[in-house]
């Protein structure tokens, strides 16, 4: 493989997307936010009143609507549904509550996994999610498992949401992160787990910069 693939997995709120985005920027390669893809399906389901439990209904939605993923000028991963940019609507508590239920459906995962692989086939990417090192890019030369203490993750999410004008308590977020982690690790199809060959980074007491530097040093060692 001539291009570089970096897989970053970990539980909700560990800072994967912040770190992955910065690693991609520093290396001048593409960032692929797979959580945003699952969130886009949840967004569609909420908008059209389809239950996240209804796999066939979700598949129909995916056939009826055009989803597009694009890197914008700031290196961000933008999601378009039927031509409209919905990226800023993907990290709401409503979408977060629906997403881990629908991401357990094997057929939904198969469709999204195929889209995700198409990004890494021809170019260097940093991809983050739950099953990147285990399922989507099992041959990636750099695999990171990024985690952090759950209280710290809830605090970070609260700050992130507050910056967007949502006021959600740390306790509430703690509860929803726990629920999401539980669903993501216990589902039968492509559950969240640390790939055997991944390097684990616990970011509880680390700054974003420190985590980014650590990943870049791992990249330099293997590439
Ligand atoms: O990373 P993010 O919090 O945006 O992911 C939202 C949800 O999408 C996760 O809780 C998980 O249920 C699902 N997901 C997944 N596989 C991925 C990425 C996300 O199942 N590769």
TrEMBL record:
<dbReference type="GO" id="GO:0005524">
    <property type="term" value="F:ATP binding"/>
</dbReference>
<protein>
    <recommendedName>
        <fullName>Cytidylate kinase</fullName>
        <ecNumber>2.7.4.25</ecNumber>
    </recommendedName>
</protein>
<dbReference type="InterPro" id="IPR003136">
    <property type="entry name" value="Cytidylate_kin"/>
</dbReference>
<keyword id="KW-0808">Transferase</keyword>
<keyword id="KW-0963">Cytoplasm</keyword>
<dbReference type="GO" id="GO:0006220">
    <property type="term" value="P:pyrimidine nucleotide metabolic process"/>
</dbReference>
<dbReference type="InterPro" id="IPR011994">
    <property type="entry name" value="Cytidylate_kinase_dom"/>
</dbReference>
<feature type="domain" description="Cytidylate kinase">
    <location>
        <begin position="6"/>
        <end position="220"/>
    </location>
</feature>
<dbReference type="GO" id="GO:0005829">
    <property type="term" value="C:cytosol"/>
</dbReference>
<dbReference type="Pfam" id="PF02224">
    <property type="entry name" value="Cytidylate_kin"/>
</dbReference>
<dbReference type="GO" id="GO:0036431">
    <property type="term" value="F:dCMP kinase activity"/>
</dbReference>
<comment type="similarity">
    <text>Belongs to the cytidylate kinase family. Type 1 subfamily.</text>
</comment>
<feature type="binding site">
    <location>
        <begin position="10"/>
        <end position="18"/>
    </location>
    <ligand>
        <name>ATP</name>
    </ligand>
</feature>
<dbReference type="InterPro" id="IPR027417">
    <property type="entry name" value="P-loop_NTPase"/>
</dbReference>
<dbReference type="GO" id="GO:0015949">
    <property type="term" value="P:nucleobase-containing small molecule interconversion"/>
</dbReference>
<keyword id="KW-0547">Nucleotide-binding</keyword>
<keyword id="KW-0418">Kinase</keyword>
<keyword id="KW-0067">ATP-binding</keyword>
């Amino acid at each position: 493989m001539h291009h570089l693939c970096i897989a970053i997995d970990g539980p909700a709120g560990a800072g994967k997307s912040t770190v992955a985005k910065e690693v991609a920027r520093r290396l001048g390669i593409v960032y692929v936010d797979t959580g945003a893809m699952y969130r886009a399906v949840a967004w569609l389901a909420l908008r059209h009143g389809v239950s996240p439990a209804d796999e066939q209904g979700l598949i129909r939605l995916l056939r009826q609507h055009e989803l597009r993923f694009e890197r914008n000028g700031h290196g961000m991963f933008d999601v378009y549904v039927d031509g409209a940019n919905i990226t800023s609507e993907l990290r709401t508590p409503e979408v977060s509550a629906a997403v881990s239920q629908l991401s357990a459906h094997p057929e939904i995962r198969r469709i999204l996994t195929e889209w995700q692989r198409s990004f890494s086939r021809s170019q260097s990417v940093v991809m983050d999610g739950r099953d990147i090192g285990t399922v989507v890019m099992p041959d990636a030369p750099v695999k990171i498992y990024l985690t952090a203490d759950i209280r710290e993750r809830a605090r970070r999410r609260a700050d992130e949401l507050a910056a967007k004008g949502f006021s959600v308590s740390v306790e509430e977020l703690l509860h929803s992160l726990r629920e999401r982690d539980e669903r993501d690790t216990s589902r039968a199809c492509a559950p969240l787990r640390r790939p055997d060959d991944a390097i684990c980074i616990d970011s509880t007491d680390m700054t974003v910069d420190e985590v980014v530097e650590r990943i870049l040093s791992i990249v330099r060692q293997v590439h």
